[in-house]
Amino acid sequence: MSKTAAETSHNTDSTDSTETSNVNNSDDAISVNPAHYLMWFRRDLRVHDNTALAALCEQANADNASVSAIYFVTPEQWQAHDMSLTQLDHIARTLPILAKSLQTQLNIHLTVQLCSSFSDCVEAMLDICSANQISTVMANHEYEGNEIKRDEQLTKQLANNDIEFIRWHDQCILPPQTITTNDDSMYQVFTPFCKKWRHTLDISTIQMHEASAINGNTKVKLEVSNASATIEDIKKVSKEVVEDYQKALQNAGLLEHIDIDVQLEHARAAYPAGETAACQRLEDFIAEDIDNYDVSRDVPSLNATSQLSAYLTIGAISPRLCYLQATLQLSKALGELHGNDGDTLDSGDSFDNTDNNDINRWISELAWRDFYRHVLDYKPELIRHQAYKHETDVKINWSYNQDDFEAWCVGKTGVPLVDAAMRCLNATGFMHNRLRMVTAMFLTKDLLIDWRLGERYFMQQLIDGDFASNNGGWQWSASTGTDSAPYFRIMNPFSQAKTHDTDGEFIKTWLPELKAIPASILHSEDKMRQALAKGGKFADIDYPLPIVEHKAARQLAIAEFKK
Ligand SMILES: Cc1cc2nc3c(=O)[nH]c(=O)nc-3n(C[C@H](O)[C@H](O)[C@H](O)COP(=O)(O)OP(=O)(O)OC[C@H]3O[C@@H](n4cnc5c(N)ncnc54)[C@H](O)[C@@H]3O)c2cc1C
Going by CATH, does the domain composed of 15-172+209-242 fall within 3.40.50.620? Predict the structure, then answer.
């Protein structure tokens, strides 16, 4: 297995641990392995193509060591990061499934421990390592500020105790710093980044990392006080964590305008938990939808995108698997086009060939995900609410108008596509990409509200909330980001609706009060104002007039950015 720039705190002398036995009180779990290694799961809740897990199993098998696994649930820390309840619930639903897969496929036992914060995790990890004679801990990298700080602290403290902490790059298809310009700096623009990303993948074989079963016939359980050690325990604690988190959000006043039961119900139905469900979704998408992706990806009512982001965000599916499956499909499609079975085409051909915009387009979306992780790694201060283009951000007189912001949050701006999108987000925990752009641009350009407020609100609601992609998307929309929308190209939410929701199907699904209004009126600001005004044809409908006039707002925004 090729190592991907792992950071380690080295302890080459682990002779102490080789003398110890890992003894467990449970009947079926007595182990006398010479060494005990620990897999720390974070945003990588899967068995297949999990880089750290595969590496740890390989090393354990070579050293005849045993392996256990741990996951820390950190609700206070997550709340500070604005994690949505639907995402926490998704993690909670995934953990028992992961525990079962680890047990049945690899003979590894997962323990789940509740810690409020990352600093508690560090303490807990030290205790666990000492109580269980752990000599090596492996995990996959996380790229956000507090996560990096936590890992650095732990690296030092484990090293003081002669314990190795090895981290692997796993979250991306190509990890941060892999794609650089010819003079070794970060690409400021996506298109050349993507070109080099594709080229790099074309000329190198992408590796899938599969773990092999370890521990012989014994199951090694960690000795950890107050932890959930059985699958039933994990289910129970996961449920309690979700309930407590819901209460904490309620107490913080964050759920006032949300019907959280509806949001949870939607999210649970739309996103069955676990790696198998995620892989099935990928398979279905590739079989049914990818061939029309380039056209249908922009029509929100079609649900024609993969909806894999919620799984990618918590690591229930590997991005490399997504890439490989799409590439395979591309080879097949090009093979059919050129009258062969695709076997003769290498992936280099696939990129240069423009015959298949659909699959190529989807692959480039995966590149956006890698791009924003490269950006975050390059500018770690993004995590501290700083804009990528500081000089643009500071000259804008951002608005903090509470009424406007609340109208946007609850979907009562009087702009149908924006309101439908926001109500969909509040009810389901998901929003279509085109609508994320439209709503974010409306907030930051039409209302000139600070993008940080919108960024935070999205994180609090999205099941796929992910710092790098969310921050990237918001700064793109606010024109403060790398390769962001030019400030003068401001989306008109009415013409966006006309192009992407021509019959008003999406709008009417989420704003049933507008069902009677023909699309020709819905898609024109002037006609909507006339229809809803006193004496207008639809004056009786309980729906607000637009809170801002798009043309005037656009001019104001352009003047502000031009200053
Ligand atoms: C303002 C704003 C906020 C966003 N916040 C998030 C977020 O918190 N989490 C998140 O995963 N995505 C975010 N995105 C990107 C994008 O909207 C979602 O990834 C996409 O809608 C998820 O749906 P899907 O899985 O069906 O995507 P598909 O169209 O099927 O794309 C496949 C995968 O590619 C990745 N991807 C697609 N578009 C982008 C993009 N523009 N940037 C980065 N990755 C992308 C995702 O992982 C996605 O699952 C945001 C975009 C904007 C404009």
Answer: yes
